[in-house]
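To illustrate this point, we now present one chain and its tokenised fold:
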Amino acid sequence: MTESAAAPVTADSEQRRVRRRQSRRELIVLAAVEVFREMGLEKATLEAVGERVGLSKASLYYYVRSKEELLGHVVVEVVRAQEEALSELLRSSIGPEERLRAFCQSHVRIICTDPVGAVSARVALSGIRDDVVRRPLHEYMARLETILREGMEAGVFRDMDLRIAQHSIIGTLNAVPLWFSPEGRLSLDQVAAEVTGLLVDGVRARRPG
């Protein structure tokens, strides 16, 4: 009697498995965004997210361990989008003030136009910090710190506590989706420019006299 051998795990099959898992997780994140927007961060449940993608809560645990981790994946998606939008511009030779303006305006546009971004802003303001989101958030904040530090060293920005400056800027930007209305007097680009101007003015070095 011959035992049937399991199919060997090859590099190609493992890559396909990883891609399928990643693809399913992306669908789960999009479903989560819908649920979080409809039910709010507090009332939303993994069961509700699972129903949107046809998975039981037990099956959902294969992709995410908790609601906090799922919220982390939402934030990661937005941070990646922001990094992609900024990467080419911030590699150019523009000065610190122009780089800070680009950083702030890009941040506002993404969190106000992308449904994932709007939920992400609320997650950031809620104080949830799952391990999934720690590294990309740290890298994103480090990018802002670099802009501010280089501006200070160049004499463009005033001396300041970088940690306070970072969190004040990000907190202000993340609050925009909470009050911005597309039907309001100003367009999103105008609002982004106005908020950015206030933030840049707040860190700009004061000229004598």
Observations:
- The two ends are 96 Å apart (CA to CA).
